[in-house]
Each structure stands twice: as structure tokens, then as C-alpha cells.
Design a protein that fits this description.
about 600 residues, alpha/beta, Jelly Rolls, Immunoglobulin-like, TIM Barrel, 3 domains, 8-stranded parallel beta barrel, 6-stranded antiparallel beta sheet, globular
């Protein structure tokens, strides 16, 4: 799915701003039918932003079910000869869109875009009432999964198996955009490298079937010089002495696709421009290669999470976060545990930051629920994660759709070097292979150019895990020294090394430590190994790094987490998860200096390159 853009043939109108807002008071949204009239502006909410922390009522913050957003929109006068669409970059987790009283589209999945054509519903120059219904309920059939139960007081409560707050609403932008009748519908780009020669394979889809010689494709370098031009829907551009997209040194060509009125007429009916980074990604033995050179990941698992706005995308926060990561020496991050806003990937493309892109499949593991996070345990009827009553065929279908939508949106971003299918599934339980193997196969069919991984957790050690052989890279989430051997770093170090060597011996694949860290209360200091102190967080990281440097197959380290983030409040989680290297308002803890020294000064891991 192409991101809308303004070109010489297309127009783009932002619908961000202040919308009227209302909470649905019944479980059956069709009973109220608020979209058939004007919602009074008694409550108003900003878009983009999660709505939960905007207001001061707990009844809104913890609301389970549907909410309404509404505003008036005008279709520009000049669009009389165009087709026009509404696009929502995300609605968490289910969205329905109405134009006046007309239902136009529904989408399930909280982190990928959806759109609908409204050309036949509203005339150019005319206003219309746009209503968006958003539902935050998670069930056994959604990705991520969860369940809603009704308590003794009659209130509905959402339970889920992931350790971050279920922020909801329109957290990303909403657009109205136009395209010509005959338009570029999709572009797929795949690149490769052979020495200094770059290859750009492209395939163009158009809204109507047109002759090959009416599709003109140009490749333009960063100074505006034309370096390749051809006609046709599909071809390969060979770029000699190519400027490669490198980690930390991005170079972006522009692939311009134009639909001509007739061959050689010079009349352009539609134009779309796509940034292209020429690079290759491979896994050979126990090394991860970018442009045929070993790459070592340094960086973080992260969350789209900030005060007040929740998961609402904010360009100021985004750029500040990138600069903080750069200050530590990070060269990469994982989109844990869902696809981030596409603006994040565009910025990473432009600045050479490497990204592991992940589906929202977190919480496929009932074994985590009760003990670690202090929430209600799994149903007594089905103690297994994968069963007809829990994670089942319908869940798998939703998971497959999440993979399709992730790859459709992000397939052309050079920063994305690997797909993560799931985070911490119950990979030692019965049924997991039958669930996961078709999804991995689908992922490879949709994109054979990138490696595929999942994040393994400690409940599925090397002797019990049953799915790792399906993947290219081992991503391990480990908390030795925190959840295991807390305040005993000597024993934790020994256990960690034995763990990593076991995976190395059995599989021989590259290993990325995709999560490691410790909760830390900023300002708590101690001379001894006192959990929650800033010193303990730093010493724990140093211990992990010593082990990484001794295990040859380790090719990356992503600390959990970049910044403190909000999650369901329990005795165990007081005002959020505190494993951040930075506080939630982006102030560095002492461990930030520990990472900065390793990643920018010592660089002891470079021996592996």
C-alpha cells in the first residue's frame, strides 16, 4: 500500500486536528447509531493521539469498547476529475468509517493503515460529516490477543498477555487524498548489490490495465541527475558505481513512476515518487551481512509511548528519540511489538538506521500471564496457549493478515532488514509449530529478500523450543540477573553464557540478544548490587556485554528498553515499566553512559566484524 503523497498529479489534505469525541455507552454500537447525527462537542480529542490519558476520568482511560470521533470535511473544488479516498494510518484496534450516514470501510488491526474511496459519496466542493468508530477490545481472535470479562460490579474489564498499556484511538494521521482516474496503484522494489554495482528490480501496478509504453520509470540520484530510464511495468535497473544505502550513511535514490497519456506525448496523467536505498541483506553462517559486510546490531527495543499522547505519533518526540539513540551510539532498533508509524521508517531510511520490523503478535503465551505480570491467569478450560478455546485457527488467520499488511506497507523501506513474526510465543508448547510454520512460509512468499525471526523467551530454552529451525536469525529475550538470579550477577553471567553457547552449538545461526535489562528507579543509588538502583542496571549491562564478546555467534544487542513506558498498573508495575535507559520524559539514567562508552568509545564488539 503506497503512502499518499502530494505530486504534480495528486493532492493531499491532512485531517489531523481537534475532533468531537464520545464514548459509546452500550456494548452494541449499532444501537446508538451516533454516526447518523452530529456529535455535540462536549468532549473533543486530538488526532493523532491515544485518547486514554487526554482526559482525567478513569471511566474513559479504562474504557473497554467503542468510541466515536467526528469532524466536518470538505472535498476540494478542484477534484471534479479525480478519484478521492479517505485513509487512516491506524485505528487501534478496530475501525469503522462513515461518510454522513454511509458506512464505507471497516478494518481490524491496530497498527496498519486502511482506506476507502468516497468519490461516489460526496461531490467536489461539498462538505460531509466524517465519523470514525474505534474499538479497543482484544479477543482470542485478535493480534495481539486478549479477552474481555464482566466483573461482579457489572463493569467490563480487558485482560491481555502483553506488558504495555492498551492505548487506543486514532494514534496516527487521517488523510483525504486525490488520484487521477488512471493512477499508480502499487510499487514493489527489491535491491541487490554485487561489489560496486547495484540492482533495482521494480514492479508497477496501475489502477487500470494500460500499455507497457505508457508507464515511464526513472531513477534519479540525490543531486537530481537521471541515471536510468525505461518504460514498462517491470524491469531491472543496473546502477554501476552505485551509492549504497549503508548503516549510518544512507543514500536514497528516487524512483519516479509516471503514467503518460500516450507514448511520447509528454503529458503526464499520474506521477508517484518512491525513495530507494540500494543495499543487500543476507545471512551466511553465523553472520548478518548488509552489502556483503558483517553487521553488528547495537540499539534498543522501543515503544511508541510518551506522556499524555500515549501511542500518538509526534514528529518532535520521534526526532528527539533518534538523536538520543544516536548519542548512545545505537545503529538499530526493533519495532517492538507492532509496526511503528511509517514516518519513523522514513526517517530511519533517510539517516541510515537499521530496523527489525515486527507484527503485533505479542502475547501468544499463556505461560507468562499469571506469575510475571500479576494479572488474571489463563482459562481453566484451556491451560494451553494453542487450543480451540484460546489461540486458534481464527487467531492464526488474523496473524496472517497482520503479516500481509505489514509487508505491503513496509516492503520498500531500505532500513527494514528483517521481519519479526512474533514476540515470545509459547514456542515449547504443543501446537506452536502447526500454528507458526504456515505463517513463516507466508512471510517468505511475500518477501523472499529479507531474513525472518521471532523473539524467543526463557520458558522455551534450547532443549525445549520446537520452532527455531524455521527461522534465519535467533532473537533471544533474556533477563538473567533480573527475573532469574536477581542480585546475583556472577551466577547470572554463568547461566547466560551457557544459554548462548547452547543455541550456538545447536543451530549455528546469528544470535541477537533482542531484550535484556533491569527495572531501574531513577535517582536510586547504591554501592552494592541493589536491584532497582542505577548502578545495578549498569553493572547488569556490563555483565551481558562481557558474555556477548565471548560468544562468537552474537551479532547484536538490543537493550530493553529505550525509555520507560506505561503498562497496566499492578504491584509489580508501579506507574509503568522502568527498564528504560531513559525515563519516560527522556532523561538519561546512568546506564545511558554505560552504553555510550561501549557503542561509541570501546567498540569491543568490532572484533566480530
Amino acid at each position: 500500500m503506497l503512502k499518499p503523497q502530494a505530486t504534480s498529479t495528486r493532492e493531499l489534505v491532512s485531517l489531523d486536528g481537534i475532533w468531537s469525541f464520545a464514548v459509546v455507552t452500550t456494548t452494541d454500537v449499532d444501537e446508538e447509531r451516533i454516526w447518523t447525527g452530529v456529535i455535540p462537542p462536549k468532549l473533543q480529542a486530538p488526532v493523532p493521539a491515544s485518547y486514554n490519558d487526554i482526559f482525567v476520568q478513569e471511566s474513559i482511560r479504562g474504557h473497554v469498547g467503542w468510541v466515536y470521533y467526528q469532524r466536518q470535511v470538505f472535498v476540494p473544488h478542484g477534484w471534479s476529475q479525480e478519484r478521492y479516498f479517505l485513509r487512516l494510518d491506524a485505528a487501534t484496534h478496530q475501525g469503522r468509517v462513515y461518510v454522513d450516514e454511509h458506512f464505507v470501510v471497516e478494518h481490524i488491526g491496530g497498527y496498519t493503515p486502511f482506506e476507502a474511496e468516497i468519490t461516489n459519496l460526496v461531490a467536489p466542493g461539498q462538505p460531509f460529516r466524517l465519523t470514525v468508530l474505534v474499538n479497543n477490545e482484544l479477543t482470542w481472535h485478535t493480534i495481539p490477543p486478549g479477552r474481555v470479562e464482566v466483573g461482579q460490579n457489572g463493569e467490563r474489564k480487558q485482560y491481555y498477555q502483553h506488558d504495555f498499556f492498551n492505548y487506543s484511538g486514532l494514534a496516527r494521521s487521517v488523510w483525504l487524498y486525490s488520484v487521477p482516474t488512471v493512477a499508480v496503484d502499487d510499487i514493489t522494489v527489491k535491491t541487490d548489490v554485487d561489489g560496486t554495482t547495484g540492482f533495482v528490480d521494480f514492479e508497477i501496478k496501475t489502477s487500470q490495465s494500460i500499455d507497457e509504453d505508457r508507464v515511464q520509470v526513472s531513477l534519479i540520484d540525490e543531486v537530481g541527475s537521471l541515471i536510468y530510464q525505461t518504460v514498462g511495468h517491470k524491469n531491472r535497473a543496473v546502477v554501476k558505481s552505485a551509492h549504497l544505502w549503508e548503516p549510518g550513511a544512507a543514500y536514497l535514490y528516487q524512483l519516479r513512476v509516471e503514467i503518460m497519456a500516450a507514448p511520447g506525448s509528454g503529458i503526464v496523467l499520474d506521477s508517484y515518487q518512491l525513495a530507494v536505498g540500494v543495499r543487500s541483506v543476507k545471512v551466511i553462517g553465523n553472520r548478518f551481512l548488509i552489502n556483503d559486510k558483517p553487521f553488528y546490531f547495537t540499539g534498543f527495543g522501543r515503544h511508541e509511548d510518551a506522556p499524555v499522547r500515549g501511542k500518538g505519533h509526534d514528529n518532535a518526540y520521534m526526532i528527539h528519540d533518534f538523536h538520543l539513540m544516536g548519542w548512545t551510539g545505537a545503529n538499530s532498533f526493533r519495532c517492538s511489538h507492532y509496526p511503528y508509524a511509517e514516518e519513523v521508517l522514513e526517517y530511519a531510511d533517510r539517516h541510515g538506521i537499521v530496523v527489525i520490523d515486527e507484527t503485533p503478535a505479542v502475547g501468544l503465551n499463556l505461560g507468562i500471564v499469571g506469575g510475571v505480570f500479576g494479572v488474571k491467569p489463563s482459562p481453566k478450560s484451556s491451560p494451553l496457549t494453542f487450543s480451540p478455546d484460546t489461540i486458534n485457527d481464527k487467531t492464526q488467520s488474523a496473524h496472517a493478515q497482520a503479516i500481509r499488511e505489514l509487508i505491503a506497507r513496509d516492503k520498500n523501506h531500505p532500513c527494514v532488514v528483517m521481519w519479526a513474526v512474533a514476540n515470545e510465543p509459547a514456542s515449547a508448547e504443543p501446537g506452536v509449530r502447526e500454528y507458526m510454520e504456515p505463517l513463516v512460509t507466508l512471510n517468505r512468499q511475500l518477501d523472499p529478500t529479507r531474513p525472518v525471526c521471532f523473539a524467543n523467551m526463557i520458558h522455551a530454552p534450547v532443549e525445549k523450543d520446537t520452532i527455531t529451525d524455521l527461522f534465519d536469525v535467533l532473537c533471544l529475550n533474556r533477563y538473567y540477573g533480573w527475573y532469574a538470579y536477581n542480585a546475583d550477577l556472577d551466577t547470572a553471567e554463568q547461566a547466560l553464557e551457557e544459554d548462548l553457547l547452547g543455541w550456538q552449538k545447536k543451530y549455528g545461526n546469528p544470535i541477537i540478544m533482542s531484550e535484556y535489562g533491569a527495572d531501574t528507579q531513577v535517582g536510586l543509588h547504591a554501592t552494592l548490587d541493589v536491584p532497582w538502583s542505577e548502578e545495578y542496571q549498569s553493572r547488569l549491562l556490563d555483565m551481558y556485554h562481557r558474555v556477548f564478546d565471548r560468544v562468537d555467534s552474537v551479532v547484536g544487542e538490543h537493550v530493553w528498553n529505550f525509555a520507560d513506558f506505561q503498562c497496566p498498573t499492578t504491584i509489580f508495575r508501579i506507574d509503568g515499566n522502568k527498564k528504560g535507559i531513559f525515563t519516560r520524559d527522556r532523561r538519561p539514567k546512568s546506564a545511558a553512559q554505560t552504553l555510550r562508552r561501549r557503542w561509541t568509545e570501546q567498540k569491543t564488539y568490532e572484533k566480530k566484524l
